[in-house]
Amino acid sequence: MVTAGKEKLLVIGGGAAGMSAASRARRLRPGMDITVLESTGYVSTALCGIPFYLAGKANFEQLIHYTPEFFTCERNIEILLNTSVTEINRSASVIKYENILTSGAGEMPYDYLLIASGGKAAWPNIKFPREAKNLFTVRSLDDARNLKNYIEKNNPKSAVIIGIGAHGIALAEALLERNIKVTMIDSATPFGYLSDEQRGFLFDKMLEKGIEILTCERILGAHGDTTLEGLDTDSGKIIGDIFILAAGYRSDGALAEDAGLEMLHGAAIKVDDFQRTSDFNIFAAGDCAGVRCMLTGERIIHSTAAVANKTGYAAGGNICDEKTRFPGTVRTKIFTFADAVVGSVGLSESEAHGFGFPYSSVFVKAQEKPGYAGGGDMLLQMIFNTKTGKILGVQAAGSAGTHALVDTAIAVITTGMKLDELSNLDLSYNPAVSNAYSPLHYAARKALKNL
Length: 451
What we know:
With about 450 residues, the protein is an alpha/beta fold. The chain folds into 3 domains: about 180 residues, FAD/NAD(P)-binding domain (3-Layer(bba) Sandwich), CATH 3.50.50; about 110 residues, FAD/NAD(P)-binding domain, CATH 3.50.50; about 120 residues, FAD/NAD(P)-binding domain, CATH 3.50.50. The protein is built from 12 helices and 27 strands. Strands 3-2-1-7-20 form a 5-stranded parallel sheet. Strands 9-16-10-11-12 form a 5-stranded parallel sheet. Helix 5 links the parallel strand 10 and strand 11. The protein starts with 7 loop residues before the first strand and ends with a helix. The mean pLDDT is about 95.
């Protein structure tokens, strides 16, 4: 334990959670010695903006919110780039690190340690030729630049994306902007939390743009050496010029697990409401840490930039004895494709069943604003507790107005609003943007008939 001189805070990871925590701690403790160790060459990055960069709609510099020099000069936070932490020695309160570029290694003591190591791409259980030059994961700025450089140099005509999720769909849309034909494959039925109608609405939009969709299609093998030539699947062979792995995202809690900290679901770090781990002086935040579900009370893995920022902020405060509690998540998800917006809040039907809630659901198809104002249909599913009348979940698919509806549903579920209250909620109305009755109103009134 560091005892002489200033208190020492070490932060592992310079992403949203790490830099939020470091900045909050600096504000509360101006005299604290704060160092961030980041394994890449950048901190404070906008990874969610990568598809815009790949599509040519954003430049590389726009994906960096703040430079290391900003944190060093403006906030007196030391930044060590290209520095990988290799071990946490809890008994000595020391971490071991290695510079990726120079192979130089060393040790650093700490009074407090924040683990914000994020996550990593999940590799399916298939023997891919990992050295293949045309096989990519896209989970970092370096990944994005490598893919863009390859596209500009080799001018591929076709791409295969392994995994049909929000991340893969965003990448597919970016590739379409470059006139690259896209095939997407998934071994399961994607977006299981959506209704069949909502999933069909999304897939129709994708098919209209020329994307080939293969669901419930297993990949049996891959062949190639320095170039991945194709995939063998249940129904035959898929070939492409480039292949992108987007088959999921896993919390990277390996350092914590190796150090003997308590883990969640074998991947994420278990923390309390104040982001403290099973070691009193070690905190964790962001994608590598579990978070409380406000509907069930269980600890889950819910990786979003919004949660990373908030849990990092809370961790930074609690390191400085602020007692900031992050209340949890309502499992919010939202993504887009072309003019379609798809969002989900709370529990799906299968989740409500799995947790033993007495529930029912309703489905409505309603315009988000009048047809004369350009309104289109929104497909909305609402799951509710048949005993309490509280809303358990909302899934929606539509156009631009879906985002506002999802945000309203977040507030409704977070505050525990009941169906009768929602049915009369005084939401904003102007025909340019909304109807006098929102699809949420229609769903609530329909659900009340089932209580």
